């Protein structure tokens, strides 16, 4: 018997279900990197729901079932996921990966995403990046790297992405009209140092200037630009 599936939470429903005590994904044993990633990917958007249902070529149906029935559906239905459910997923990922510490150690979210998307589910990379005219690189998410900039006190995501791409001489390679999903990891914060005290979410992201060879307007005459001034 197929279990009922629940759509992502939107607008007033998201506020009603997700706000308050005992909401979200319960943390346990350094699970924060995975809890935050799963909440961001599934609570209020369906863009990656194919991960929950499609039989990808390398798909591990057991891991897919745990992700769908023990984490995503409870999160969307009641707004709360128990730590034991996430631990069940972590145990399965430990078995599938080459790392024995997924159940107890803190990881980089990118390491988790690469494991579950590539090795466990067999999903095609979501992004193609090119740096300085070099060979294209495929990846599942983009982590913002940048030096401290004094003029950015409380930046928004748009500013951080643009400056990070600029400092790394990166461009998005246009595989389709736009990337199907642009997963962005904010600058890492440690206990001793935080680059920014707050980051304002950009509800929309303009990637026009990030695309490789995309037609753009000249800032002086308004015609199609032929040169780019960094």
Automatic annotation (TrEMBL):
Top-level division of the source organism's lineage: Eukaryota
Top-level taxonomy: Eukaryota, Metazoa, Chordata, Craniata, Vertebrata
Keyword terms: Cytoplasm, Hydrolase
Protein name as annotated: CYLD hydrolase
GO MF annotation, one: cysteine-type deubiquitinase activity
Entries under SUPFAM superfamilies matching the protein: Cysteine proteinases
Species: Callaeas wilsoni
InterPro entries: Papain-like_cys_pep_sf, USP_CS
